[in-house]
Every structure is written in structure tokens, then in C-alpha cells.
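Re: that chain you flagged

S.,

Sorry for the slow reply, it's been a week of failed gels. I finally had a moment to sit down with the sequence you sent. For the record, here it is as I used it:
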Amino acid sequence: MEQTINHSVTHPVARPSFADRLQHWLPKIVLAPTMLITVVCIYGYIFWTAILSMTNSRFLPSFNFVGFAQYEKLMDNDRWLTSIANLGIFGVLFIVISIALGVMLAILLDQNIRQEGAIRTIYLYPMALSFIVTGTAWKWILNPGLGLEKLFHDWGFESFKFDWLVDSEMSVYTLVIAAVWQSSGFVMAMFLAGLRGIDASIIKAAQIDGASLPTIYWRIILPCLRPVFLSAVIITSHIAIKSFDLVTVMTAGGPGYSSDLPALFMYAHSFTRGQIGLGAASAMMMLAGILAILVPYLYSELREKKS
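Prediction finished late last night. Pasting the C-alpha cells below so you have them in one place:
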């Protein structure tokens, strides 16, 4: 019987060269500082703020834990409750008006009008400004002694009155005017990009079936822009919750604290009133508000991708 013996020759495994190892580790080396800064300066400080919110820290941090006493104190604070109510008014009006105006402007530009590039630039220009500049400009415009009211009085309309900026009942609405003016162009750009991404054959098929242009937009195009709507709501909600510089420049929370917002409340109590624990508690409440909007959005996005 002949037996065949297979002799396998084992070749030594070639070790990766230095260039290969460097190519493998280079992305990790480049991203490591960014990841470290993110973990320490974002998540680390979130954790630190959560700890401070459960202490009786005042001018300096302390480790005398008091549980949720600062949160109870926060809910009994009239200024905080006013700021939450103002955030509800400001947030709802700002989000709804910005999205509605952005959609209308996007539909207008989607009609291939002349000078579209120039008009789009004009609409987007306010977004290039900081809220400090926007707040300063609108503070001058809405100031009864300098702006619109004085202008109409100089034109002879002595009965014209527009003193919302100094009216405790209406001052929060001046923040809405300035914020909408700055952000609606950005929302318009989002929806315009979404409109340009829709297949033109769908629109042509609807036109062949006899659908009017308003019906096409209302029944076909806008439902296709659901992801853009969600993104716009997330972005504008984030802007509304963290609004600080705009209210600081325009009204400083006044008259009194009638136009106060949570971000201004947090800053005032943390850095000017020596109540770090209370300010940290308000910051965590703001974070909870952002997460309450962000988490459902991310969940719906992930569920759609899986399905």
C-alpha cells in the first residue's frame, strides 16, 4: 500500500512593517486628544455639575451633600417658575414661526425665481451674525426712545405706540421677534435642501393626474420632508433652551425678571449670586429638557433605520 505523505511547509508570518503599524494607529492617535477633551470637558463637567446640584455649594464648591434639596428649592423659586413659563412662550412661538416662515421661504425659492442666489444670501445673512449683534440691533430698533416708536412719532403718527421692550407683559415677545429674524433663514436653507432632493418625477406624475401646486406641496412634498421637520424642531428647540446672549443683551431678563429664561437664571445664580448648587440644579433641569427632545428623536431615527 502506497501512502502519500503531504509535507506542509510552514512559512514564517511576515511581521507588519512600521509603516503599516503607523497607518493602523494614526487615526486613533489623531482622534485621541479630541476624545479626551470631549470626555473631560463635556461629559466630565456634566457629571461634576450633577454632583454640585446635590450639594449646598455657594460661592465655592463644597461636598456637603443635601440630596435633592436644591431641586426642591428650585421648584419653589418664583424667578425659576417665571423663566420656565417664559421658555414655554418663547420656545413654542420661536419654533413654530421659524419653521413656518422657513418652509414658506423655501417653497418660494423652489419656484426657480430670478436672483435666487442673491435672495437666499439675504435670508441667510442674519444667521452669520451672533446673537449679541442681533440682540443689540433689535434693542435699538424696539427701544421706544430710539427705534420704531420714535420714527413713527417723527413722521407725525403721535398715537403710535410700540413699547414692548419695557413692558413686563410683552418683553418676552421681543425675544421671539429677534430670534425668528435670525434663525428663519437657516431653517429655510434646511427645507430648500430637502425640496431639491425630492425626485422631480413624483411632482410631474401628480401634475399629470391634475393635482394643483398647493395640493402637491401639502399632500406629497411636505410629508416627504418629515426628517427635515424633525431636524428643524431639534435644532430650534436646542437654540431656545440654551438662549442666553440674546436675552442678556436685549432685556437682561427685565423689566424685573419678567423676560428671564433658564440659561440666564442659571448664570445669575451660579456666578453673580453665589448659589452654585442652585445654579447647577437649574443646569441639570435644562439638560433634562434637551434630552427629553433629543432621545425620542434618536430613538425614532434608529427604529426607522432598523426597519
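What I noticed first: The mean pLDDT is 84.

Talk soon,
D.
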